Structures are given as C-alpha cells and as structure tokens.
Amino acid sequence: MDGSSTPARWNHRGEMMPGTPHRQPRELTEAEHEEACFWASHVPGGQRYDPVLVKSMRRRHTHIASSSRPLSPESIPVSAREEPSPTPEPEEEGPEPWEAEAAAGIIRKKLSLNLGWGVKTWNMKSSILHRLKLLKDDGYDISHLQVPGTTSDDVTQAVHAHIAARQQPAAAQPTLAAVAVAGPSNPQGGSSTLSQQQPGFMSSTPMKRKMFVVPAVTPQKRRHSFEEATPTYSELHLPWADSSQCESEPSPKRRRTLKTAFSSDREREEVQNFVRRTALREIFQVSRFATNNARHLETAEMTMESEPSQIIFAAYNPSSGPRPAPTGYVGTRGMNAIMAEIKFLGHADVDGTAVSIVDPDTADQEIPRCIQILQDERNNIILEGHNRDLAGLLHRLRTNDLANMTDWEYDGLTVVRKSGLTWTLSEQTQTLLANIEGVLSGGGVHDGTGEAVVVRIEQIYDGRNLL
C-alpha cells in the first residue's frame, strides 16, 4: 500500500464518506480499529455498547457450545444489532387472596386440627376456606379438593382422615423410639458399650438400657348428660338433712321453683306474720309478766282466774222486746272494724266455727294462753278469756292503728308502713273499749281479784251491716 495515499474516512455507520477516492482495502492499525469499534457501538437508539455486560454474559454461558454461542458485536451487522435488555428475575409468588382471608379467620376463631370436633361442629364453626387452609399449612395436598364440584362435606371428611393419619404415627412413636434407644444388636455376640464405640470414653460400669412406652394422648371432650345437669330433689336436700356435713363446704345450689308473683305473696305473708307476732306479744305482755311473778312469789292474789271472763257483743235486734241492760253501745261500723282486726290477729279453727288469739310464747305448750271468739245460736259474738288478756286486747285496739288496713314492707332493717295512711277506731268506740278495760282491770264495780266478769255490749245500726 502506498504510504502517500490519503487514508480512508468513514462515517458513524461504517460507510465511506463521499469525496474520498476509492482505494484498495488495507489492514487497520490498532487505533483505527478501536475508533471504528467506537463508532460502530453507537446504535440508532443512542445507547452505547457495554463490553463488561457482554463479557459477563459470555462467562455465564460457557457451557454452551461454541457453535451455538451468539455472535460477537463485530460480526453482527449494524442493522441487526438491538439494544440489550436485562434478564428478568423470577418474581416470588405471594399467598392467594383466599389464603389471607382464611388465615385471618383462623386466628380470629382460634381454629386448630387438635380441637377434636365432629363433622357437624366443623361444618357449623368453620368455613370451607378455613379447613382448606388448615390442611395446606399442615402439609396436606389440597389440589384434589380445589377442583370444581367439591362440597363442604368432602373437605370435612378430608380433615377427619388427616387427623386420624396424624394420630396413628403418634401411637406408634414410643415403640420406634424404644427401638432407637436400644440400638443395633452386636452380631458377633457380647455387649456393646459406649466405651467400645467411642474411644476415650471412660465408663466403669455399663449402663442398662430400659424401654419406656408412653401411651398416645387422644384429645376428648366431655359431654354432660341431662341427669348430671338436673339433680333430683333428694340430692338437693340430702346435705341439709345430714348433720355430719362439714359447715365449711359450700351449700349446694337449688334451682328456682317459685314464680315472681308467688314470691311476692310469700314475702307479704312473712311481713304480716311479723306484724301479727309483735302485736300478740304486746297483748299478752301483762298476763305473761304476772304469771312469771306468781311462780316466784307463789301468792294466791297473783294466780290466774279459774273461770274466764266474757265480753258479749249482742247482735243487732230492731225489735222493742225486753232484753238485759247493756254496759254500753257500739255501732255496726265500729264492730266491723273490731272484728276485722281480731280476724287478722287470730286464726280460725279447723271447723271454722271459732277464732283463737294465741300467745306466741306459749303456742307450743299443752294448754296455751289464748282468747276465744265464739258465736252462739242468737248470733251474739263472745270474746272469752282471762281478765288481763281481754284487757290487753282492748288496750291494743284503742291505742294502736288497725294493722289489717295498713300495707307493710321490709326495708332491709325492719318492717315499716308502705304508705303514710293510718286507720284507727272512732272516739266513741275507743271510749267504750276504755270503759270495758277498766271493768276488767278492777277499776269499776269488780275488784279484779280473780272473779270472772261478764260485760254485755249492744250493737246499734249506724248505716252498715255487721260482717
């Protein structure tokens, strides 16, 4: 090649620039070759050729045959060159949406394969997604359960079969562990010790191996029967009848058998019994005190009368015929109020012919202290009793409110009136009762030393019939 010739000039596409005389090809120098490669590395997109990336890709594909390797950038035509793209990395597959939803439900409901539930319980307390998630997390292949047409019962049966398969290895595990502890037997005979197997291990006496078999524990749920939940009447009341029972033990619970209305009536009756007992103790207080003193003094003056006294309330008789002179008169309205209070304080006999007012302190004695209220064939009402008892009854009637017409209640401490209204006898009736009380106490004609007194009171009609 002529050294005076003008060197060829090339453009960025590797083509000879116009105006340059055509010359014979010649070998390029190293600088010219690098310049040509530089201009050839510029693609139309403007990205430069990266030799480092090409070398790393060539090293990665060293196992590929040389005939199948990609051509070098120098051998590839410029028009066929493309921009190299990075190799996409495989993306990690995340959990499916139904798995995330099922996992949240399992945590919220605290579900597990160790609950020991039955088929109905699994169907009611868990969804099909929960059961599939439990099986998948436990290593069970659920691909055959995700095909169309799978029902909830199929998944539940798979859960039961998987739980049974888990329990079978648990039962056989102690035997396998025992075989592993025992170790392989020595085929040459004799005992194999750790000192023979491991050099440098000093053992004075060989250890005797034992096999411990631990039974498998199966979770079970206790089911209560109706007989256990509902004890009989004798089982409830037997601890109360047994006096040898320790007092520190808790009392057995008894089921409520009374309705609310019946309980209210019972509470009202208990309050009335308390008021009645308090009034009766007040009526027989003087007589009881006198009897106690007579037992100590043993005097004849303090003994009780041999015959009871009587207060006769004659029936209303509109006729003008002859009759005994009465001690006083009482209206039918006042008589009705007196009889209503007497019926509240006393109790009727079995046959219902008489009413008795009994001292609660002597009710358990053979002959209790009492006042009898009778009615004869002429419809006369007779109050029969000892002088002090009759006087105490009259004193109670004229100085206190009528208890039978008052609503009482228990406020937690004592019995009080529910309302502020009070009912008492009229002044005329109270005056009459005070006069009769004076006669019975000896303040009138009689001296009260034990003689029986008969007081006759005549009823007059004042606008209301007798009860």
How is this structure best described in words?
It is a single chain. A seven-stranded mixed β-sheet has the order 2-9-1-6-5-4-3. Residues 170-204, 299-304 and 443-449 have low confidence and may be disordered. The longest helix has 31 residues, at 152-182. It has 14 helices and nine strands. Helix 3 packs across helix 5 (128-137) and helix 5 runs parallel beside helix 6. The protein folds into three domains: 1-80, no CATH class; 97-164, no CATH class; 267-460, no CATH class. It has helices at 30-40, 51-60, 97-109, 119-125, 128-137, 152-182, 194-197, 226-229, 233-241, 260-283, 285-297, 332-345, 387-399, 427-441; strands at 309-314, 328-331, 347-348, 355-358, 370-375, 381-385, 408-410, 415-417, 454-460. The termini are far apart. It is an alpha+beta fold and 467 residues long.
Short description:
Helices cover 38% and strands 9% of the residues. By secondary structure, the protein is α+β, with helices and mostly antiparallel strands.
List keywords for this structure.
single chain; alpha+beta; 3 domains; 14 helices; 9 strands
Q: What pattern of helices and strands is seen along the backbone?
A: HHHHHHHHHHHEEHEEEEHEEHE
What portion of the residues fall into strands of 2 or more residues? 5-15%
What average pLDDT do the residues reach? 70
Helix content: 25-40%
Please report the total strand number as a whole number.
9
Unreliable stretches covering 5 or more consecutive residues: 170-204, 299-304, 443-449
Radius of gyration: 59 Å
* Distance separating the two termini: 162 Å
Which structural category fits the helices and strands? alpha+beta
Strand order across the largest sheet: 2-9-1-6-5-4-3
Spatial shape? rod-shaped
What's the number of structural domains?
A: 3
Largest sheet: 7 strands, mixed
Total DSSP helices? 14
